[in-house]
Amino acid sequence: MGHSVATTRTPRERWIEEGLSVLADGGVDAVRVEVLAKRLGVTKGGFYGHFADRPALLQAMLDTWERESTDAVIERIEREGGDPKTKIHRAGLLTFSDERLLPIDLAIRAWARNDETAAERLRRVDNRRMDLLREMIGTFCADPDEVEARSLLAFCAAIGAHFLAADHEGRTRTEVLTRAADLLLDRPSPDTSGR
What we know:
- The longest helix is centred in the middle third of the chain and has 27 residues, at 54-80.
- The chain is mainly alpha-helical.
- The protein has a domain at 63-184: Tetracycline Repressor, domain 2.
- Helix content is 67%, strand content 0%.
C-alpha cells in the first residue's frame, strides 16, 4: 500500500521527511543538519534556505507528523466508510501498524519525555485520537465512564503491544490483540458466536 505522500516533494519537504526518518531510527539527538545534508546529497548551506535553524526543522517535523497521524488518518477512515467499529479498527491499523508512522510515533514519545514542545504536541495528538475513540465507542456504549475506560484500554493496547515482550502460550500476539479488540468493541468472537 504505497504512500501518496511519495509524490515529488519540495526540497523543504525532503528535509522534513529525512528528519522524520532519522528521528525514527536514532531519536531526536540524531537529527542534525550535517547528517541530513549528507543523506540528501546536498550541502549544509541549502538547509538555511528552508529553515531558520534546527529548532525550526524540528517544529516542521512535528507539524508534518501531527497532520499525518491525525487529519490524514481521520480523512481516510471517513472516506473508506464502514461502521464505527470498523473505523476504530482501521484508525488503529493506520497509526500503529504502519511501518512508517509507528516508529516516528514511538520516537516522538521518547523525545517528549525530555522536551516540553514535543510533549505538548504529543498531548494534542493523543487527545485527538482519544476524541476519535470516544466518538466511535460512544455510538454503541452509553455510559460515559465506560466509554472513557474502553477508549483508554484500546489506546493502551495499541501502543503497549509494541513494548511488551511477553509470550502468549499457543497464541500469536495478533490473535490476542484481535480478541482484545473484540472485547473492547463488543464484537462477538468467532468461536463463541455459534454457542
